[in-house]
Design goal:
Helices cover 43% and strands 18% of the residues. By secondary structure, it is an alpha+beta fold. The radius of gyration is 28 Å and the shape is globular.
Length: 454
C-alpha cells in the first residue's frame, strides 16, 4: 500500500504551528484595522482570462491551471493533440486557474463592485495563493499572503502610510528589517537614458535578480535579451550607486536630468522621504535602485522588506499601480498596496524563536475525569468557565490519572483541575500547576477570574 504524501511545496500544520500562524495573522490583521482597512475575500480559483497576461511571461508559466470538469478533451481537435502545442491545448482544456496573488483578483473585485464601493477604498485580504514554482527554502507552491491596498487615490500619503504599516508589523514581531524602496519611473528613466527604453521589462526582470545571481550573471542576462554592451556599461554605475538616500537622490537628479519620467520618479521618492522624516520610524529605509520587483503592473513606488538576522527572500513587498483595473475595462483607477508573506514570516519567527510564550497555548485548564458522578458535577462548572472566556476541557473517559496528566503535558495545558469525592463534599476545586507541580484549593466561583488573570 502506497504511503500517503502531500504535493511538493505544500505543508501540513500541527495545532501548535497553527497557533503560531494565527498569532501572525492576528497581529497583521490588527495593524490593518488600526489604519482603517476593511477585509474582503475572493474565490481560490479565477477565470484564466482574469489571470493570464497580468504577471508577465514568467508569471503565466507559474499559474496552476484547472482542467475543465467532465470531458475536458471535448473541445480539443485531434490535430491539436497530435501537435502537442501546450499553450493551445491548455486554452482548450482549462477555463480556470488558482489565483497567483491577491492583487489581480482584487482589481477584478473593484471593477465588478464599483457601484457598491466608496473611493478611496482601503481593503485587506488574508488568503492562500498558488504558484507552480520550483520548491526551495522559503519558497512554496501554496502560501498565504496578507495584502493591504488603497485604490482610488493618487496621494503619496498612501505610500507613507504603507511604510508605517510595515514598520509597525515587524516591530510587533520583534523582527529587525530593512525596507527597500525604489520607483518604476526611475527605472524607466534609466532605460531611457541608456538608450533602451523599449527594453524596460527585460532590464527590470534582470536587475531584480541581482541579490540571487550576482552582477556578472545579471549582465549576461541583459546581453542575452539583446541589450547593447554600451547600454550595459552605462547601467553599471547606476546599479552600484551608494551613499545615503539623500545622496542617491541628488545623484539621480543629475543622471536623469534629461528624462522627464525619471525626474518624476525622483520627485515622488523625495516627497515620501520628506514625509517619513516627520515620523519617528526606527526601521531602516533604503533607496535601492536594483529593486525592480518582477511584476509588470507596478508604475510608481515599489517596496521590499528584508529580514536582517535570517537568510531568506523578501518577507514583504508591494508598490503603486496606476492602470491595473484598466485591463478589466475601468481605466484611471490608481492603487498602491503591500503584501506580507505569512509563510516566510513564520519561518523567520521560528528560526529566531520570537513567539510570545502563550502563542502555542490553547486550553488553559483540563478537568480530570473520575467517573460519571464527578462528570455531572463538573459539566456546569465547565460551561460557566467557557462562558467567562476561559479555554477549558474535560478528559472524555475516566481512565488512569497518569494517562490524563500525560495528555495535559502533551498538549501544554497549564492547569489540571481535580474534582473528586473530597472536593465535591468541601465545595472546593484542587488546581494543579503543571509546570511547578504546586496544588491550590480554590472556590469554584473564584476559578474563572483566577485563570483569566494568568
Amino acid at each position: 500500500m502506497q504511503k500517503p504524501s502531500i504535493p511538493k511545496g505544500t505543508r501540513d500544520f500541527s495545532p501548535e504551528e497553527m497557533a503560531k500562524r494565527n498569532y501572525i495573522f492576528d497581529t497583521i490583521r490588527s495593524v490593518f484595522y488600526l489604519y482603517g482597512f476593511k477585509q474582503i475575500e475572493t474565490p481560490a480559483m479565477e477565470n484564466l482570462s482574469t489571470l493570464m497576461g497580468k504577471y508577465g511571461e514568467e508569471g503565466d508559466k507559474l499559474l496552476f491551471k484547472i482542467l475543465n470538469s467532465g470531458d475536458f478533451l471535448s473541445d480539443v481537435k485531434p490535430e491539436d493533440l497530435e501537435s502537442q502545442n501546450l499553450v493551445r491545448l491548455t486554452n482548450q482544456m482549462c477555463e480556470k486557474g488558482l489565483r497567483y496573488d491577491l492583487t489581480v483578483p482584487f482589481a477584478r473585485f473593484v471593477v465588478m463592485h464599483r457601484n457598491e464601493i466608496s473611493f478611496p477604498f482601503r481593503r485587506f485580504q488574508i488568503q492562500p495563493v498558488w504558484r507552480a514554482d520550483r520548491p526551495q527554502k522559503g519558497r512554496y507552491r501554496e502560501f498565504f499572503q496578507c495584502d493591504a491596498d488603497i485604490v482610488g487615490s493618487d496621494s503619496l500619503l498612501n505610500e507613507v502610510e504603507l511604510i508605517q504599516i510595515m514598520d509597525e508589523v515587524f516591530r510587533r514581531f520583534n523582527i529587525r528589517v530593512c525596507i527597500k524602496m525604489n520607483n518604476r519611473k526611475i527605472l524607466s528613466g534609466i532605460a531611457e537614458i541608456i538608450g533602451e527604453a523599449d527594453k524596460i521589462v527585460d532590464i527590470t526582470v534582470a536587475i531584480d535578480k541581482l541579490d540571487k545571481i550576482g552582477l556578472e550573471n545579471v549582465n549576461l542576462e541583459l546581453a542575452a535579451k539583446g541589450i547593447s554592451e554600451e547600454a550595459i556599461a552605462k547601467l553599471q554605475p547606476i546599479i552600484n550607486l551608494s551613499g545615503s538616500n539623500r545622496e542617491k537622490t541628488a545623484t539621480l537628479k543629475t543622471v536623469l536630468a534629461s528624462s522627464e519620467v525619471g525626474m518624476k520618479g525622483v520627485g515622488e521618492i523625495q516627497t515620501v522621504l520628506d514625509k517619513i522624516e516627520l515620523l519617528s520610524i526606527p526601521t531602516e529605509l533604503e533607496l535601492d535602485l536594483t529593486l525592480a520587483r518582477g511584476l509588470n503592473y507596478y508604475t510608481g513606488a515599489i517596496f521590499e522588506v528584508k529580514a536582517l538576522d535570517v537568510q531568506i527572500g523578501s518577507i514583504s513587498g508591494g508598490g503603486r499601480y496606476d492602470n491595473l483595473t484598466g485591463v478589466f475595462g475601468m481605466p484611471d483607477v490608481s492603487g498602491v498596496g503591500i503584501s506580507f508573506g505569512a509563510d516566510r514570516i513564520f519561518d523567520v519567527l521560528n528560526q529566531l524563536n520570537l513567539y510570545p510564550e502563550d502563542a502555542g497555548q490553547t486550553t488553559k485548564v483540563l478537568f480530570v475525569n473520575f467517573g460519571e458522578t464527578e462528570e455531572n458535577y463538573i459539566m456546569p462548572l465547565l460551561s460557566k468557565l467557557r462562558r467567562s472566556g476561559v479555554n477549558a476541557e474535560i478528559y472524555p473517559e475516566a481512565v488512569k490519572m497518569k494517562k490524563q496528566l500525560s495528555y495535559a503535558d502533551d498538549n501544554r495545558i497549564a492547569y489540571v483541575a481535580m474534582v473528586g469525592e473530597t472536593e465535591m463534599q468541601s465545595g472546593k476545586i484542587t488546581l494543579k500547576n503543571m509546570t511547578s507541580g504546586e496544588q491550590t484549593s480554590i472556590e469554584p466561583e473564584q476559578l474563572p477570574e483566577f485563570l483569566r488573570t494568568l
